[in-house]
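Handoff note, outgoing to incoming analyst
You'll be picking up this chain. Sequence as last confirmed:
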Amino acid sequence: MGTFRVGFEIGDLAGSRWEALEALVDTGATYTRVPRGVLARLSVRPSARWEFETADGRVIERDVAQTSVRLNGQAHVTFVVFGDEGSPALLGAYTLEGFRMAADPVDRRLIPVRGLAL
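Most recent structure output, in case you need it:
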């Protein structure tokens, strides 16, 4: 799949403070990743430390928290992974599914999708 970037906002859990970011849409990443410094400026603190498997098979640990994300005028609470300083923001599958959005790699955009009631 081709990659592309989208604008979104990350906020504190109450949704009272926001910071605009550009993120790589990464449906191969489970969760959204934001540089630690951005989260610190918003007073988002880690609530857990989880294991993740990298593309090359290594297992790493990262801090995580729940916080607010705003995309296309809607705001939802989602899990966010604390990224290293200088690492790009990633918009992961969990957040995209919460917003009922999918990646359109041909037109390089996010598109709305219906939920499934099976």
